[in-house]
Amino acid sequence: MANPDNIGMIYPAAIPVSCLRTNSHRNRRNARCGGNPRVHEILRFLAILLYSGKQMTNQLTPENILKTGMAFWPAKTLLSAVELGVFTRLAQGSLSLDALAEQAGLHPRGARDFLDALVALGFLDREGDRYSNTSETDLFLDRNKPSYIGGILEMANRRLYPIWSDLTQALLTGKPQNEIRTGEADLFEKLYADPAGLKEFLAAMTGVSRAANMTIARAFPWHGYHTFVDVGTAQGDLAVQIALANSHLRGMGYDRPEVGPIFEQYAQTANVADRVSFVPGNFFEEDLPQADVVLMGHILHDWDLSTKKMLTRKAFDALPAGGAFVVYESLIDDDRSQNAFGLMMSLNMLIETPGGFDFTGADCMAWMKEAGFSNTRVEPLVGTDSMVIGIK
Amino acid sequence: MANPDNIGMIYPAAIPVSCLRTNSHRNRRNARCGGNPRVHEILRFLAILLYSGKQMTNQLTPENILKTGMAFWPAKTLLSAVELGVFTRLAQGSLSLDALAEQAGLHPRGARDFLDALVALGFLDREGDRYSNTSETDLFLDRNKPSYIGGILEMANRRLYPIWSDLTQALLTGKPQNEIRTGEADLFEKLYADPAGLKEFLAAMTGVSRAANMTIARAFPWHGYHTFVDVGTAQGDLAVQIALANSHLRGMGYDRPEVGPIFEQYAQTANVADRVSFVPGNFFEEDLPQADVVLMGHILHDWDLSTKKMLTRKAFDALPAGGAFVVYESLIDDDRSQNAFGLMMSLNMLIETPGGFDFTGADCMAWMKEAGFSNTRVEPLVGTDSMVIGIK
Question: Which residues are catalytic (chains A, B) (predicted)?
């Protein structure tokens, strides 16, 4: 049995929450009084409880901490599987270990562990020696299906995973940790100068936002409007989805000239090229095209506060009275305590841009009010995406 | 409304599982017959279902895929918080945003997003403008408490996160992606040559295995034995926990000589130095010390198959008749379909070592039988750790 003098050495595998709450309060009281938390006393108390052998509910374990801290393992395992085309190959039918390893170029040493890890993570099924896609991975991670959302994961794998390695440095300096750090061109300059990289980036943007695009196309009260412009339209999926769902509308996709061919091909394949056209431009240098509805999806978060406000003013100027400005993003909740993804997206902007940050619906409505919009509201879309609507 | 010719463009936000199963079977049938999966037909069918507007249960969404693929964000956010000592600072009492940012050296640009992300992830509490630890982070991530498990996360942050960036390369080549790739010394040679790094590594090993150590100290039938040796003992926490819980036992920690001072200090602090001693050695060159019980925790997975078998034989040789060999690891389940952590630990060995891999209880029992052990069994410990016991 443990010597009571030694219990400071003992790590309790699971500790009742009820006593920890008490201790936590005691800690804070001590701190307020300027005293040190009585760590040893607390641990002694806990160890006695632990050694009493009672089974208690609501016990503290380090599992969630360890699981989250090591979550880059399942992330990178899935990202490598997307990179190696595992799900695209299996969409043609199940494959044996050897056949799949050969097709994907996997060295025998790690192949079985890798594929079985994907089984254990729920991304592959295995029957006997044959691997197959799950329903989800077959639908969403087969590159040959229009429902493919792997673009964002390809970008996460190639670009975001490595630069997030420098998160601490970004937090300490407030400076981006991508090409900007080494004095190379700005992220977007570089992206637009590389056609292959640009196409991957645009497809990634489509993959991550299509569910929200379809919701906007159906949920927004389009019957009251005739024209729209999607600012920073990228591949044009939002414009296409709006046109598909609302045959009375004509729309524009507005973006830098390099995007034009990619946008126009996309609109033609969707059979909406007669109602949806591309307008080249640069929102830093020009006014926005006039339309009944101005949309900006995942644009404002790229920029610093003064640019956010400038774009909000330009949207106001492009609208007629009664026109609508629709901003959609993975909004941070107003209390900044729930939407972890939105908050981490803002950390991603810290790493990727000189001044960008994500924001709450309340933040965005305040900028809209400041620009002159009379009515503003927030409406949820899907997942963590919401739209902020301002009526002129 | 969507033109039926265009539905291939539409990504269904959520699709009933029931129809996907059917389609998945159809895909495989087609593939077996040499035909291509009829993707467009399937998507048309799905889009019709989707557009029927019915709310269905069991719908497919990409959420789990996206959440897992982006899980390096919460992982790195937590790892940076450990690195910056956020939880250790808050263990002294709650702090305001400005005070905490100043103490941790956080630049104002990202500080609030970072700390609020930790709130949203459940690792900090916030009341008004003041941040405080949760019960879990206060217990497990305060460096000044013996219950600190952040050592493994410090190593994950400094070492594992960056080298996992090269998982794809490891899978394609079967070769490690750490210092070994650049022709530097082997991982362990390098570790043992760097006292500061060694201490961090050993503390990390203690943090990750203490819960299992305590379980072994209590759950194994120690009453039948008098002596034990812990092979690859590191800081010595397993030996210490066994001695604390079983006053009739005398034990040895066996490891390379560099570990000696760290081990002895640890045993003294725990008041068990009279019953637990350090034996320096190298298990490649020498026989193991004789004892009633030989333990190896997280050792076998570092090595290739022939080394695993050699160590199992040496354990057999070190035991008297009736003696026990106890191997404990995050065992892969025998079906290799459940313990994702064990399988990814094996991928970690792929990245870190020339031949290491993790294994199932059945694998380990087979090696024990081959070495001459008469009885073998597997017993669960805590979390994903289990022990394999072989009786001579």
Answer: 301 (proton acceptor)
What is the C-alpha to C-alpha distance for residues B59 and B72, in angstroms, rounded to an integer?
26
**Are B69 and A80 inside 8 Å of each other by CB?**
no
**One domain, residues B31 and B113:** no
Contact A105 B172 (CB under 8 A): yes
In a domain, residue A48? The reply is yes
Whether residue A5 lies within 8 A of chain B, CB to CB, comes out as yes
Q: Which of A48, A65, A82 is the last residue of a domain?
A: A65
For chain B, say whether A162 makes contact (Cβ under 8 Å).
Answer: yes
pLDDT digits (tens, 9 = 90+) for A330-342: 899 999 999 999 9
* Residue A380 sits in the same domain as residue A249: yes
Of B20, B80, B161, the CB nearest to A72: B161
CB–CB contact B43 A146 (8 Å)? yes
Closest Cβ–Cβ partner in A170, A172, A241 for B105: A172
On whether both B201 and B316 belong to a single domain, the answer is yes
Question: What is the SS3 assignment for A271?
Answer: coil
Do A165 and A280 lie in one domain? The reply is yes
Same-domain status, B22 and B117: no
Q: Can you tell me the distance from the alpha carbon of A378 to that of A386, in angstroms, rounded to the nearest whole number?
A: 7
pLDDT at B250 over 70: yes
- Rounded-to-integer distance, Cα A308 and Cα B349, Å: 47
Query: Is A226 one of the annotated active-site residues of the chain?
Result: no
Look up the domain containing B37 and give its range: 4-65
Q: Is A137 on the interface with B (CB under 8 A)?
A: yes
- Answer whether B119 sits within 8 Å of A92, measured CB to CB: no
- Residue A322's Cβ-count burial label (10 Å; 0-12, 13-18, 19+) is exposed
Q: Out of A2, A114, A344, name the one closest to residue B171 (CB).
A: A114
Whether B343 sits inside 8 A of A117 (CB atoms) is: yes
Q: What is the pLDDT of residue A59?
A: 78
Q: Tell me the pLDDT band of A178, cut-offs 50, 70 and 90.
A: confident
Q: Which of A80-94, A257-271, A303-317, B48-62 has the lowest mean pLDDT?
A: B48-62
Q: How far apart are CA B179 and CA B181, in angstroms?
A: 5
Judge if pTM exceeds 0.90. Answer: no
CATH code: domain of residue A362: 3.40.50.150
**A152 to chain B: which residues are within 8 Å by CB?**
66, 69
Query: Does some domain include residue B152?
Result: no
* Contact status of B305 with chain A (Cβ, < 8 Å): no
| pLDDT at residue B27 tops 70 | no
Lowest mean pLDDT among A222-236, B98-112, B372-386: B372-386
Clarify whether residues B208 and B334 are in a common domain: yes
Q: By the CB < 8 Å criterion, does A4 face chain B? A: no
Residues B169 and B94 occupy one common structural domain: no
Spatial distance between the Cα atoms of A390 and B279, rounded to a whole number of angstroms: 74
